[in-house]
Design goal:
The complex is a heterodimer of chains A (178) and B (189).
Chain A lengths: L1 H25 L11 H8 L11 E8 L5 E9 L6 E12 L4 E8 L3 E3 L4 E10 L1 H10 L5 E13 L2 E15 L4
Antiparallel strand pairs in A: 1-2, 2-6, 3-4, 3-5, 3-7, 4-6, 7-8
Chain B lengths: L4 H17 L5 E5 L4 E5 L5 E4 L2 E3 L2 H26 L6 H32 L8 E8 L7 E10 L1 H27 L8
Antiparallel strand pairs in B: 1-2, 1-6, 2-3, 3-4, 5-6
The chains are: A alpha+beta (178), B alpha+beta (189).
Chain lengths: 178, 189
């Protein structure tokens, strides 16, 4: 019966030792490769870079309807990844830059899926507060337009949420008649 | 002929766990929209980052050890279960019933340690459930990045717990079998 026990102990040792010795032998010239896969090794050696996560960039001119207060702003964004990502949120506060007055908010109209490395325009829409416009006109009756920037911009893409402080100089919006 | 039915079930379950674990992970972690995916089990652990999949050779070696251990354990448990009263049966049982338990405990300990090690780098990942992981990003535009991480245990994990339970039951039942197969002194057969 000691033979059975001996064989079982030998089996236990072989089960543990053979795989370890095998992998050490395979990676004997590159021990770091045991814990660093080639992709991470390439990153560390500078042969490969991580995709750059950048916020969407405003494009074109904002559209504003003084009668209805409707405001829209377009962004352009490129998916830096090799997998599709869905932009489920893009929002920010519209601020009159020179007057430091919050005019309103814009949000993403509908979720948008970008294929790998696809560039697409993203449309956001919102409403400008007429009281804020009146406030600007009261401060500067001769102003016909106002420069706007976006504050508290947040983007959710691919399940990652980015909180960007401010995107300045997204364009001008007309103030309309008195 | 005495049969240790707990051992039979334990042996079959162990082999089923081994087979299922190659295709279904015991534990899964998904960060964001599949930006980072970890599918972990003692016999097959894979990682995916930004759409690219990879394995760590050292972990693959540990996976092989676990796979061989589960296979040997399941087969020897089945052999033992039909020959529980032989003189060498206790050695077969002793070899086989512990391995699924060691592998299960080792997996859980490894998982917990890994999560703690990652947490020491400032990234708090969940063991189960979902959690929002926030990273301070010192890139030029000064953004703060947060991402939802979801983790959970799969069916093979719970099957493994069941297999370990039956392994322990087989060990306890072995004592019952051996007591009742001993011939009392002075009784002629």
């Amino acid at each position: 019966m000691d033979l059975v026990k001996l064989l079982l102990v030998l089996l236990s040792v072989l089960i543990v030792v053979v795989p370890i010795v095998g992998v050490l032998y395979i990676y004997r010239d590159n021990l770091s490769g045991l814990i660093l896969p080639p992709q991470i090794n390439n990153l560390l050696q500078g042969n490969q870079t991580l995709p750059s996560i950048q916020p969407p960039q405003p494009t074109g001119s904002p559209q504003y309807n003084p009668q209805t207060g409707a405001y829209s702003l377009s962004f352009t964004y490129t998916n830096p990844l090799d997998t599709p990502i869905t932009i489920t949120n893009l929002q920010g506060q519209v601020k009159a830059t020179d007057y430091n007055i919050i005019l309103g908010n814009v949000t993403l109209s509908q979720p948008l899926t970008l294929q790998p490395h696809q560039t697409a325009n993203i449309n956001t829409a919102g409403t400008i507060d007429p009281n804020a416009v009146s406030q600007i006109k009261a401060q500067n009756p001769s102003a016909t337009s106002v420069a706007v920037s976006l504050e508290k911009v947040s983007v959710t893409a691919g399940g990652v949420s980015l909180q960007v402080g401010e995107i300045s100089n997204v364009g001008q919006i007309p103030l309309g008649g008195p | 002929m005495k049969i240790n039915m707990f051992g039979v079930v334990a042996g079959v379950l162990t082999l089923v766990v081994l087979a299922v674990s190659f295709f279904m992970p015991w534990w899964t972690l998904i960060v964001g929209e599949n930006l980072l995916v970890v599918n972990a089990s003692p016999v097959n652990t894979t990682f995916g980052a930004l759409g690219a999949g990879f394995r760590l050779p050292l972990i693959s070696a540990l996976n092989l050890i676990s796979a061989l251990g589960l296979a040997a354990s399941g087969l020897i448990l089945l052999v033992y279960s039909f020959l529980p009263a032989r003189p060498y049966s206790k050695h077969l049982l002793g070899f086989a019933y512990r391995k699924p338990l060691y592998i299960l405990v080792g997996f859980i300990v490894g998982l917990v340690v890994s999560v703690f090690v990652v947490a020491s780098f400032g990234v708090s990942l969940p063991l189960f459930g979902s959690k929002t992981v926030t990273l301070s990003n010192n890139l030029a535009f000064g953004a703060t990045i947060s991402v939802v991480a979801v983790a959970g245990f799969g069916l093979p994990f719970y099957l493994a717990i069941l297999a370990v339970a039956f392994c322990l039951a087989a060990r306890m039942y072995h004592s019952h079998i051996t007591i009742h197969t001993e011939e009392p002194l002075g009784v002629e057969v």
